[in-house]
Q: What sequence folds into this?
């Protein structure tokens, strides 16, 4: 896979099987900051615990880590990844995040592994399909839902998975995603989220769900 430049100057890759890029053409860094970091208020939380579905190129993780390091808070990050990329591919995606990139280099030296710890906090990775994995209850302060699209990866967007993500998220916590698909939003509401349409960058809308109710069953 060869890096593809995006409009904010950061590179991304195209998945050879799905035919979709890991990030939008408007920019990997821009989406990570504006959608996942800010719309979930991770950049304001004094002790952020992020659950991400779709670790991919680790851009969202590095943006959250840079924010935590700048603020002097610990980050706890739990990521689900069913198709981990080899370290030589991940090394192609460098970002203008000096603090996070230093940690990222250390992670790649032992990647893939299930747990990484340092004075900055912890990254745990669950390798497999999200619908088949066990997630901790009421653990996360934010959920980053960032798998490939419902068109090519429908299982990750189904109501059953969203119910499990709701159980993993603390009440009042926020889920953010780039998808604005109607069926997905209805499933998100059914799973116990209050659903908000928010202006997107490069597309008309993104979606934010706030955990307000227990999921059915």
A:
């Amino acid at each position: 896979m060869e890096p593809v430049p995006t409009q904010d100057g950061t590179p991304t890759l195209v998945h050879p099987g799905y035919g979709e890029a890991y990030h939008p053409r408007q920019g990997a860094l821009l989406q990570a900051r504006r959608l996942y970091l800010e719309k979930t208020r991770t950049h304001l939380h004094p002790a952020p615990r992020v659950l991400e579905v779709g670790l991919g190129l680790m851009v969202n993780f590095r943006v959250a880590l840079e924010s935590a390091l700048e603020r002097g808070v610990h980050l706890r990050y739990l990521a689900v990844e069913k198709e981990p990329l080899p370290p030589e591919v991940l090394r192609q995606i460098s970002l203008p995040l000096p603090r996070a990139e230093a940690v990222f280099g250390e992670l790649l030296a032992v990647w893939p592994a299930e747990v990484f710890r340092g004075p900055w906090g912890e990254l745990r990775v669950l390798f497999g399909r999200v619908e088949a994995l066990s997630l901790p209850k009421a653990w996360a302060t934010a959920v980053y839902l960032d798998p490939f699209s419902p068109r090519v990866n429908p299982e990750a967007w189904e109501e059953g998975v969203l119910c499990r993500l709701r159980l993993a998220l603390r009440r009042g916590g926020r889920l953010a995603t780039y998808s604005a698909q109607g069926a997905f939003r209805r499933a998100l509401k059914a799973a116990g989220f209050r659903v908000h349409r928010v202006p997107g960058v490069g597309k008309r809308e993104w979606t934010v769900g706030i955990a307000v109710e227990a999921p059915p069953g």
